[in-house]
Specification:
It is a single chain. By secondary structure, the chain is α/β, with parallel strands linked by helices. The protein has a seven-stranded parallel sheet, sandwiched between helices.
Length: 258
């Protein structure tokens, strides 16, 4: 798939992976629109990347925001690629505690990480179908294969994205649609929060370079870093894969961050 000349909408584009994606898609000749919930961060990102077509305040978990986003994007000429990057990992463990916060965290993770993906895909699909060549990029995780005990609802939300993506791709291929469906399965990405974990981390730059190269080659399921190994081990020995993710050290580090 060609990237140069395409217009890309990136949700959660003001920091981390989303910001790096905006930089690299621009560098590869695409036009880029980003969204985020924080107007201050959107303004800062627009100053950092003046080549952005637009930086639009929008919450993928809010249906009214999504409809308004569609209208704004349509007024800008529409998009060719929808990159569902926005996601959160909350601080509650959601593990049968009498604590309303735990439920609220789980609700937010599902609303943003999973239902937000479906919402935007549904809204933008007809627009994408009208393009000569178009794509949807959904972000799952290595935790879509093996759950992290301290993030059960986050892991569940990413597993839901993975299964949904497979079904969506199959549906569009059967209907001979021009919309390609890519699934990005990031490993742990190197940040201050993850530096002490017993995971092989990669940088946002490495992640997005792999994503863009995979899109060009029409490689629809994109695994890198620890993800391919964990995927393989889980197929051979689910118990071993589970232990790889849920080490004592990882549990201690994550507890200290909550």
């Amino acid at each position: 798939m060609e990237i140069k000349g395409k217009t890309v909408l990136i949700t959660g584009g003001t920091a981390g992976i989303g910001l790096e994606a905006a930089k690299q898609f621009l560098a590869n000749g695409a036009k880029v629109i980003i969204t985020g919930r924080n107007q201050v961060k959107l303004d800062e990102t627009k100053k950092l990347l003046p080549a952005l077509t637009a930086a639009i305040q929008s919450d993928v978990a809010n249906s009214a925001d999504a409809e308004l986003l569609f209208d704004q994007v349509k007024a800008l000429g529409g998009i060719d690629i929808l990159y569902n990057n926005a996601g959160i990992m909350g601080s509650g463990q959601n593990l049968a505690h009498a604590n309303d916060k735990n439920f609220a965290v789980a609700e937010s993770e599902i609303a943003i990480n999973y239902l937000g993906v479906i919402r935007l895909n549904n809204i933008f699909l007809d627009m994408l179908k009208s393009r000569k060549e178009a794509a949807i990029i959904n972000t799952s995780s290595l935790l879509s294969h093996v759950p992290l005990n301290l993030a059960p609802s986050y892991s569940a939300s990413k597993a839901a994205v993975r299964f949904y993506t497979v079904a969506l791709r199959d549906h569009l291929q059967i209907s001979n649609s021009n919309v390609k469906v890519f699934e990005l399965q990031p490993p742990v990405v190197a940040t201050e929060m993850t530096k002490d974990l017993e995971f092989q981390a990669i940088t946002p730059k490495q992640l997005i370079e792999t994503l863009i190269n995979s899109i060009r080659k029409n490689k629809y399921t994109i695994r890198m870093g620890l993800t391919p190994l964990l995927y393989f081990v889980n197929r051979i020995s689910p118990k071993l894969a589970y232990k790889m993710v849920n080490t004592v050290k990882n549990a201690e580090v994550l507890k200290s961050l909550r």
